[in-house]
Amino acid sequence: MRPMIQTETSRVNFRWIMPFEEGNRDLKQLLGGKGANLAEMTRAGLAVPPGFTITTEACRAYYQGSNLPEGLLEELQQSMTALEQKKGQRFGDPTAPLLISVRSGSVNSMPGMMDTILNLGLNDETVKGLARLSGNERFALDCYRRFIQMFSNVVFGVESVYFEKILRTLKQERKVDTDQELTAEDLSGLIDAYKNTVKSIAGKVFPQDVQEQLELAVESVFRSWNNNRAVIYRRLHAIPDEQGTAVNIQSMVFGNLGDDCGTGVLFTRNPSTGERKLFGEYLTNAQGEDVVAGVRTPKAIAEMEQEMPEIYQLLSDTAAQLEAHYRDVQDIEFTIEKNRLYMLQTRNAKRTAQAAIKTAVDFVHEQIITKEEAIERLDTAHLNQLLHPSIDPSIALDVLAVGLPASPGAASGQIVFDADVAEQWSKKQMKVLLVRNETTPEDIHGVIAAQGILTSHGGMTSHAAVVARGMGKPCVCGCEAIEVDDEQKQLMIGGRTYQEGDWISIDGSTGRVIEGKVELTDVNLSDELLLLLTWADEIRHLKIYANADHPEDARKAREFGAEGIGLCRTEHMFFGNDRLPVVQAMILAENLKDRKEALDRLLPMQQGDFEGLFKAMDGYPVTVRLLDPPLHEFLPNLEELNEQMAHLIQNGREQSSDAHKLRQLIKKVRSLHEVNPMLGQRGCRLGILYPEIYDMQIQALFQAAVICIHKGIEVIPHLMIPLVGHYTELKYFHGRITRMAQEIFDAAGVKCEYEIGTMIEVPRAALTAEKLVPYADFFSYGTNDLTQMTFGYSRDDAEGKFLTYYVDQKILPNNPFQVLDRDGVGQLVELATTKGKNLKPSLQAGICGEHGGDPESIMYCQEIGLDYVSCSPYRVPLARIAAAQAKLAADRRDSNCNLA
Ligand code: PEP
Ligand code: MG
C-alpha cells in the first residue's frame, strides 16, 4: 500500500516523496537503506543536512512507464520549496543559492554501484553567489567544475577520462602537481573547456536551468539502477531486480571550504578485525567522494583527536549513540563545515567475516544482543572467508612491498591490469590477481573473476577494499611502493618489473605483496568462531554429517564438528595408484574366478580404509555407500586407447603382446559403452549384476568393524544402497547384508549395531517410498541425481550448455544443482519422508547431495522435518550455523502462527 503522507496543510497527499523528518529505519523497503537511516538520524536529533527521499516505489513506477511517474514533478517542486524554507536559501537564486546532492540509495547497500551527483544547482550565476557567500571564489569554481563533470558523466554519459585529460594537460601547462595549486582563473578556463567537451562529445549544452538539472538527475539515478555494474552486483548478492532504488535529495554541506572543514568515513569498530575501537579515515578540506574514491590517501581517524579535538569528541559520542541505537557496528559518513559536524549517512557496516564473528560474540558478551540474534546475524556465505587458505608462517617469503591489509586471506595469481582480461583469463581456468592503481565500480566483473586485488592507491575504505571485503576476496590496497603502468601492462616494485601473466601473491591479512606463487595452508577456526559454533549447536535440530571418503577427510570433518559421515563414496577409494590396476583387473576379468581373485586383492585395501574411517569417527555413524558409478569410469577412454593402438601399428607392433592386451581392453571398453551411462548400469544395478563386488565391500566393512571393536573403538556402520528405483533392489541387498553381517559377527564373537538404508535418487523410489520402508533404517536423498532425474537435466552437461543461460535469463530462479528446487525435487523429498516416517517413526532422513552445504537448502530441510544434512568437511561449520538459523526461523514462524 502506498503511504499517504500529510504533514503540512499546504501539502497534497504525497505519493512519491518523504521528507527525512517523516521517515524512519523501518521504512527501508520504501526509502532505501540510506534514506531510512537519514530519517532515523534526523528524528534522533543529530545534525543531518535537511532533505527528502524519492521512494523506491517511484523508481518502480518509472520502470513500468519509462517516464517519471505522474505527480512526481509536482511533489518534487513542493519538497524543494519546503527545503528552501528550512535552509533559508533558494534553488537557482544567485543571492543565496540552495545546492543539493542527488544520491541513489537502494534497500540493500550496493556501494558505488549506482550514481550520485553533488553540488546540483550550480550554474554560471549561482556559482558567483556561492563565491560571494563563501568568500572563496576558487572554492566555488572548483565545485562547479566538479559538478559539470559529475552531472555530464551521469546524465549525458560523457566519460570522466575526457575531463581528466583536460585537467591533466592544464596542470602540466601550469607546472603544478595538485588540483589545489590551480588558481581561480585556471578553474574558470577549465569550466569553459568542460562545457565545450560536453557539447562536442554528447552534443548537449550543459543546462543552466536548475530545475532541468534536477529532473534530469533524478531520472538518471533511476536509470543507474540498471547500469551494468549494478546488475552484476545484484546478481552476485541475490538482490531482486525489481526492487528499484530510492533517490535522496539533500542540501549540500561543504567539507572543502578550508582547513576547518573536512569529510570522512568512520566505523564504530574495526571492520577488518572487529576490534572495539573507532576506525576510519578523513581528509581536511575535501569533499564528498574524495575519501572513498581513493584518489588522495586519507589520514587515520585517530589523528583527528589532535587536529580537531572537539569535533573528534562529538564524533565519537555520536558514533556510540548510533551503535547503541542500531545495536550493530555502524559505517558513518560525515562532513565538517566550518567546524560544524554533519552526519551524512549511517548504515550497518560491511565487515570481514572475522570481524562479523568477533563483533557478534562481543555484542553478546556486552549484553547488546542475545546468542540467538548473534547467530541470526551471521551471513554464512560470507563466513566462507574464514575457511580461506592463508600463507604458512614458516615459509620464507620474498616480500616485495607492504600495503594496507584490506581484506584477509591469501591468494596467488597471474597479474592482470584490466577487469576484462581478468574475466577472460579466469574463464580459461587461470588464476589471476587484478592489479590496478585503484578500482572503480566498473571493475566489478574483474574483481569477481580475480583471486585477489592489489591497488597502489586508496585507503581501507576505498572501493576496492569495501567490495573485496564484501566478497571475501583477499585485497591489499594503498600499496604506494608499487607502480602500475596500465598502458605498458607493467608492474614495478623496488626496481623489479613484472609483466602481465607473471605470478605474484598477496596476503590480505598483513598487506604483504610477495614474489611468485606461494603455498597456501589450511584454515584455523578462531576461538570466537568456535564459541559461536557451540551456540549454534545448542540451537539447531538438524544433525550435520560430512561427505568424506578418506580417513584424513574424516578427521578434518570431526575437527569442524561433523557428527558422523553421511556419505562415503567408496569408488573414491579405488582411484589410488596401487588400487586402480587391481580395479581394472577386476573389471577386465573374463570369468568369476578371475574377478574374485582381483576382489580378494582389493579387500584388504578397502578394509584398511574403513578401519581408518571408523577410527576417525569413533562413536559416530559412518555411512558407506556401495559402489555407484558405471565401470567404464575406471578404464581409459576409447579415443586414447585407439591412439595407442595406432601408434603400435605404426611401429609394426600390431602382433606384440602389448597390442594383444590393448585389443582386449578396447573390446571391454566398447562392451561397457552406454549412450546414457548415468541412466545405465550403475549403482545397485551394477551390484545386482556383479554381486561379488558388493559382497567384497560388505565383507570389508564388517571385518573392519570387528577389528575396530577389538581395539575399543565404537563403530556405527550404516550401509547405503545407491540408485534404488524398485523396492526389490533394496530387499535383495537387505537380505544379503543381514546374512553376511551375522556370519562375520558369529565368526568373530563380537558384534555391533548397524543400519541399512537407501539413497533416494530416482523419482520412482521417492514415489514408492512406503515399499522401501520395511528394508530401510534411513533414507538419504542423493539430491544431485534426484535433481538430474527430476528435471531431466544431465548434471555433467547442463551447466556448461544451457543452465547458466537459463539462470541469466531468469528462466530458472537459480541453479537447481546448487539450491534445492523446493517445488519439484523438494516435493519428492517431502513426500518420501512423510510416507517413510508415517510408517516408521524411527526412520532417519537426510540429504547428502551438494545441497547439504547450501544454507537455503538447509532451511528447506528444516522446514520439511529432515533429520540431517551431509556436506563436504569444509562446509560443515557453515552448515552448523545455517542449521541453527533454520531452526530459529522455524521457531519464529511457529510463534507467529500461534499468535495469529
Ligand atoms: C547424489 O546423487 O546426490 C549423490 C550424493 O551421489 P553422487 O553425487 O555420488 O552421484
Ligand atoms: Mg548419486
Cα gyration radius (Å)? 33 Å
Please estimate the helix content: 40-55%
Q: Domains counted in the coordinates: how many?
A: 4
Q: For the largest beta sheet, what order do the strands appear in spatially? A: 12-22-21-14-15-16-17-13
Number of strands: 31
Shape designation: elongated
Unreliable spans are 1-11
Going by CATH, the homologous superfamily of the largest domain would be Phosphoenolpyruvate-binding domains
Structural class: alpha/beta
CATH topology of the largest domain: the name is TIM Barrel
Bound molecules: phosphoenolpyruvate, magnesium ion
CATH architecture of the largest domain: Alpha-Beta Barrel
Mean pLDDT equals 91
Number of helices: 34
Brief descriptors of the model:
eight-stranded parallel barrel; 4 domains; binds phosphoenolpyruvate; disordered N terminus; eight-stranded mixed beta sheet; Glucose Oxidase, domain 1; binds magnesium ion; 900 residues; 46% helix; Dna Ligase, domain 1; D-amino Acid Aminotransferase, Chain A, domain 1; alpha/beta
